[in-house]
Write a structure and sequence with these properties.
The chain is built from 2 helices and 8 strands, in the order H-E-E-E-E-H-E-E-E-E. The longest helix is centred in the first third of the chain and has 22 residues, at about 1-25. The chain has helices at about 1-25, 90-95; strands spanning about 30-35, 40-50, 60-70, 70-80, 95-100, 105, 115-120, 125-130.
């Protein structure tokens, strides 16, 4: 009788471990790129969330300052999240994106997901692209 109890206990433990292993969502990987289609260098100041993004507890932001040469595309952020791939994540990862060119600041809200081109490049990997044009500074 004790043998049956021990075997049943091991089977139940294995079953629970299997449920926990299968039920965990795998990480989704996001890469964000900015393309500078201007004839001058642009300066990009980013406030990117790095802790509790998208929640009322989001309180840690990284400030990134990036220069992007004319007619180039540059990776500005790589991050992960555990929900299905979604183009709305730009609004989750970024608090603010300010882009300047020759001391002129664009008035466009670059955190708006509709400005980004979302591409699912693999089952758990997406890339999003933002194109900055000279007209953004008029």
């Amino acid at each position: 009788m004790l043998f049956i109890f021990v075997v049943m206990k091991k089977i139940i433990i294995l079953f629970l471990e299997l449920i926990l292993l299968v039920s965990c969502d795998p990480a989704r990987f996001y890469d964000y790129y900015i393309t500078n289609n201007c004839n001058e260098v642009i300066n990009v100041k980013i406030e990117a969330c790095s802790l509790n993004c998208g929640t009322q507890y989001a309180h840690k932001y990284e400030i990134l300052n990036i220069q992007i040469e004319s007619n180039t595309t540059q990776l500005i952020l790589s991050d992960t999240y555990f929900q299905p791939l979604d183009n709305r994540m730009v609004e989750y990862f970024f608090k603010n994106i300010i882009i300047t060119k020759e001391n002129v600041t664009s008035k466009i809200n670059y955190v708006n997901k509709d400005l980004w081109v979302f591409k699912k490049v693999a089952k758990f990997h997406a890339e999003s692209y933002l194109t900055v044009k000279s007209e953004d500074f008029e």
